[in-house]
């Protein structure tokens, strides 16, 4: 085991040059030897203090192969006069297989200083060669990330017989990218037989990159491909590994990015896998592996060979900052690297003392203990290394797992015998060593009906369906166990699933260091399934494929107590709601008859599940015992329900506990189920509409009233009391309903189409009030009743209204002209004819369970009839009243009732007509009148009645003249000092005589 110690001090003089230690594979932890690498201390030529020898250690990995150790801080001193200049060029040392210097070996005597110390930092004067390095059978390569102003470069030396060819990456003047920070060399990367150098540049464009270099002309390494990094600062390319992951003959590329992070996913570090596509790589990785936050996952990578001998190369990933440090082992397959680690090894699990930064460096691929399995060497910063040795991997062969008989007939089973389970195992070593005959012990577990509770079988000698046994190899070959069938098994359609799993029963071991053989501590091949199962079919009458295809069909109907189906409306049965409805009956018929040659087979565990709504309560079933009542009604139809079998009619009776007026429908779901195969099984809805029809009637005491108009025209503004309007009218309506109280579900209304005015806008019939049940009043919205707020009569006694409507007492018959009256005329006013305008108003029927009376009182508008219908002897006015239901519940219905009412308003206006008198009476009357007139004239003449009096001449006279008033304002605009009294001039004249 070669270990670098870059800060180790020289034991003699204490110079801290670094060192390389060789540790044998032994039980001791303190037997590592410091290699004696001859390093000359010449301060005037080179500085070896802190040159970090051992920063890179490599071997040729072949018999008699050489080893390599580098010190990337090795510094050359250049003198310019008295001034010394230092050039940190780095240096590597090659030693033989015996770890000693062989002066006859050109590999070892070659100086291995590729950088020119005579140049400055813009060239190779600070190249730090040896930061990465390695070699194969004829190639040695170095990484120098400090060359060309820290652009970096790579050196490749190839020896062919006696010739030495060296190649390097030229100066591209892209400083600070660190090309050569990590490097790998291999064939079958870009070309099958050509060597390709893969180098990492972790600071390339701040995201990092991996360059694939090929040898070109003029001893240069040319860039053939560049794979960019995914994230700024991720240090993509700081660790590299080449391995044929899918065993296709091409080397795949694994790249570490230890500082990659995803904050939300708590990712810290990533490994990117690029699968080789016959010499080409995609720019995007085929797989990305990530580690936990702050773990440095991907800080170190190593191709560790085929550690489980499955034919595919495996990978180790170091995460040195995850706790004490961890190493993840990933296996590969034909699809490439697997997504999940096969094993995670923590530094806290190794030895009595915990190791810090475990996984800081990795090296693998060599079999150190000779058991044909490659081992893994892990470094740390705790001055400890750990060799993880691979344990032998065994493959379980000939896993015989059988049950006889393969089909079980319950009728043939006894309490002691039924089925026999046989297990047989054998094994071999995955490395193919035929001499490997270690004694191993398997612990196996048999479990029947794992997913069923309770199971249908048990093992002999126990009441459990699980059995655990021990199987030792190579002595034992087979074992058998009896499996018994339980009584009253219902499910005979589905097979009994018997599963078996096994594990390796490891031997107890204590912690021990050293080369102790691991042959006695094998592990099972994790790529093999450690579980197996078999199915035990039941003997049943089904098709050749052992699958039963049933054809269960269901029909249902709601019936009466006498098994008569309820009526249907639009295909749905309807229940007429009543408080007397206490029970509902559902009739169900089920068949299993074939309709095609492939269905109608036995229906195993045929069940009918009836889901009942809260409004119903299942109470009984006919035939008795066919169903059980719980949260649902469960009816067992048969196990199996045979082909062409018909279930006699099932009638389930329900208590109607929750059917109310607002119940629109009753929905019962019928769900057929069977363990047999039937894809068209769907729940069937047995739906019953609940219809509530209210029985009602509307009548009017007298649909035809008689009234009159007479008198004189009175204006609307002059009317103060209702009797000022005109003659009274009263319409009495009787409403009868039978049924339940609707509550908030609806309202029964009595609506009126009332003729309130004629087309020109004059009042016709003036509604004054609506009396309900004699005392209460109805006030429809809109103010249509008594809109003028007239004072109503307080006495509403029927006798008073009848007296007002009585015609006047009969008297002497009127005198008529000899020519006779004109013919009787009539006018008809109605809303339908457009001769009257109507208003619609409604009154609710509040007491639906008792008869209700409505009295609509009104007045004939006398003035309108006098003005507009004087020429008519009778005016007929009509209107309507309608009883109807207003509800948002569609199942509550009521037939509308409409009555028509009318009033005949007769004219009682008196018209004077000339009388018919005899002629002689007329002549005598005229003569008598003339004689009387003559006598009167004679008498007046005797009394000087006709003598005119000169009154004007005898009447005293008074004459006065008014003097005009003075002007109130003077010309100067000022008021006079005082007003003088005005004088009147009068003259009196009186005659001597007054007659």
TrEMBL record:
GO terms for cellular component: external side of plasma membrane; integrin complex. FG-GAP repeats lie at residues 222-283, 284-339, 343-405. Its main location: membrane. Residues 542-688 form the Integrin alpha second immunoglobulin-like domain. One of its GO terms (biological process) is integrin-mediated signaling pathway. Residues 697-907 form the Integrin alpha third immunoglobulin-like domain. The chain crosses the membrane at residues 917-941. It comes from the Eukaryota. Residues 390-541 form the Integrin alpha first immunoglubulin-like domain. It is a single-pass type I membrane protein. It is found in: Membrane. Keywords: Cell adhesion, Glycoprotein, Integrin, Membrane, Receptor, Repeat, Signal, Transmembrane, Transmembrane helix. Residues 798-821 are annotated as: Disordered. It holds the Pfam family Integrin_A_Ig_2. GO terms for molecular function: integrin binding. Belongs to the integrin alpha chain family. This is ITA3 protein. It comes from Rhipidura dahli.
């Amino acid at each position: 085991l070669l270990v670098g110690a870059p800060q180790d001090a020289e034991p003699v003089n204490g110079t801290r040059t670094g060192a390389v230690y060789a540790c044998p594979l032994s039980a001791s932890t303190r037997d590592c030897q410091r290699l004696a690498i001859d390093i000359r201390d010449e301060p005037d030529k080179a500085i070896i203090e802190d040159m970090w020898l051992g920063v890179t250690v490599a071997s040729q990995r072949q018999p008699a192969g050489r080893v390599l150790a580098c010190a990337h801080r090795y510094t050359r001193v250049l003198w310019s006069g008295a001034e010394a200049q230092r050039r940190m060029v780095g240096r590597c040392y090659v030693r033989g297989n015996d770890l000693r210097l062989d002066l006859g070996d050109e590999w070892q005597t070659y100086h291995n200083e590729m950088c020119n110390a005579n140049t400055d930092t813009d060239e190779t004067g600070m190249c730090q060669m040896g930061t990465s390095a390695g070699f194969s059978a004829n190639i040695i390569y170095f990484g120098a990330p400090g060359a060309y102003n820290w652009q970096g470069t790579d050196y490749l030396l190839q020896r062919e017989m006696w010739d030495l060819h060296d190649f390097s990456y030229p100066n591209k003047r892209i400083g600070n990218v660190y090309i050569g920070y990590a490097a790998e060399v291999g064939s079958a990367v870009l070309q099958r037989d050509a060597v390709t150098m893969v180098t990492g540049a972790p600071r390339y464009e701040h995201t990092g990159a991996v360059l694939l270099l090929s040898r070109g002309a003029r001893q240069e390494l040319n860039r053939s491909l560049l794979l960019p990094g995914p994230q700024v600062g991720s240090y993509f390319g700081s660790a590299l590994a080449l391995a044929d992951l899918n065993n296709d003959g091409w080397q795949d590329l694994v790249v570490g990015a230890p500082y990659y992070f995803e904050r939300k996913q708590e990712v810290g570090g990533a490994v990117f896998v690029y699968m080789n596509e016959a010499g080409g790589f995609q720019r995007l990785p085929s797989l990305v592996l990530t580690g936990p936050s702050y773990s440095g996952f991907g800080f170190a990578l190593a191709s560790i060979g085929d550690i489980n001998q499955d034919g595919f190369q495996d990978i180790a990933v170091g995460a040195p900052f995850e706790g004490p440090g961890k190493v993840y082992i990933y296996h590969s397959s034909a699809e490439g690297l697997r997504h999940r680690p096969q094993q995670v090894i923590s530094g806290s699990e190794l030895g009595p003392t915990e190791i810090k930064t475990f996984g800081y460096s990795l090296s693998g691929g060599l079999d150190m203990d000779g058991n044909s399995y490659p081992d893994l060497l892990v470094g740390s910063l705790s001055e400890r290394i750990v060799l993880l040795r691979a344990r032998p991997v065994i493959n379980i062969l000939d896993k015989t797992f059988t049950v006889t008989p393969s089909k079980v007939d319950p009728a043939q089973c006894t309490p002691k015998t039924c089925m026999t389970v046989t297990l047989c195992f054998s094994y071999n070593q995955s490395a193919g060593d035929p001499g490997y005959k270690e004694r191993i012990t398997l612990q196996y577990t048999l479990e029947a009906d794992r997913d069923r509770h309770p199971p249908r079988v048990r093992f002999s000698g126990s009441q459990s369906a699980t059995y655990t046994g021990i199987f030792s190899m190579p002595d034992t070959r087979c074992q058998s166990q009896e499996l018994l069938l339980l009584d009253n098994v219902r499910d005979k359609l589905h097979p009994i699933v018997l599963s078996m799993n096994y594990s390796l029963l490891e031997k107890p071991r204590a912690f021990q260091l050293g080369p102790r053989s691991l042959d006695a501590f094998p592990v099972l091949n994790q790529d093999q399934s450690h579980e197996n199962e078999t199915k035990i079919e039941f003997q049943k009458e089904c098709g050749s494929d052992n699958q039963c295809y049933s054809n269960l069909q269901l029909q249902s109907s709601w019936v009466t107590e006498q098994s008569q189906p309820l009526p249907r409306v639009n295909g749905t049965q309807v229940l007429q709601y009543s408080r007397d409805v206490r029970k509902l009956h559902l009739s169900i018929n089920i068949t299993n008859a074939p309709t095609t040659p492939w269905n109608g087979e036995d229906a195993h565990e045929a069940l009918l599940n009836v889901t009942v709504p809260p409004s119903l309560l299942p109470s009984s079933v006919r035939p008795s015992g066919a169903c059980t009542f719980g949260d649902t009604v469960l009816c067992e139809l048969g196990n199996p329900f045979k082909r062409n079998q018909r279930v006699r009619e099932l009638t389930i009776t329900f208590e109607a506990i929750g059917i109310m007026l607002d119940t629109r429908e009753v929905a019962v779901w019928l769900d057929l189920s069977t363990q047999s195969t039937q894809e068209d099984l769907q729940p069937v809805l047995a739906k019953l509409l609940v219809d509530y029809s209210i029985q009602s009637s509307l009548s009017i005491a007298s649909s035809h009233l008689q009234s009159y108009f007479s008198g004189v025209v009175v204006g609307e503004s002059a009317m103060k009391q209702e009797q000022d309007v005109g003659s009274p009218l009263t319409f009495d309506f009787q409403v009868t309903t039978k049924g339940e109280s609707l509550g908030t579900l609806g309202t029964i209304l009595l609506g009126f189409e009332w003729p309130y005015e004629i087309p020109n806008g004059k009042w016709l019939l003036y509604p004054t009030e609506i009396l309900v049940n004699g005392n209460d009043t109805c006030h429809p919205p809109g103010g249509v009743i008594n809109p003028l707020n007239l004072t109503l009569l307080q006495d509403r006694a029927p006798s008073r209204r009848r007296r007002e409507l009585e015609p006047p007492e009969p008297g002497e018959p009127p005198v008529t002209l000899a020519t006779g009256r004109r013919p009787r005329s009539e006018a008809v006013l109605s809303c339908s004819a457009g001769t009257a305008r109507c208003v619609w108003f409604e009154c609710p029927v509040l007491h639906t369970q008792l008869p209700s009376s409505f009295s609509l009182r009104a007045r004939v508008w006398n003035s309108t009839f006098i003005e507009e219908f004087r020429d008519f002897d009778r005016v007929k006015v009509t209107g309507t009243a309608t009883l109807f239901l207003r509800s948002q519940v569609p199942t509550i219905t009521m037939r509308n009732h409409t009555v028509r009412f009318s009033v005949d308003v007769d004219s009682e206006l008196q018209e004077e007509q000339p009388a018919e008198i005899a002629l002689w009476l007329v002549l005598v009357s005229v003569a008598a009148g003339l004689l009387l007139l003559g006598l009167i004239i004679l008498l007046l003449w005797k009394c000087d009645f006709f003598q005119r009096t000169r009154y004007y001449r005898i009447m005293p006279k008074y004459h006065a003249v008014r003097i005009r008033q003075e002007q109130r304002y003077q010309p100067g605009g000022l008021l006079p000092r005082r007003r003088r009294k005005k004088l009147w001039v009068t003259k009196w004249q009186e005659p001597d005589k007054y007659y």
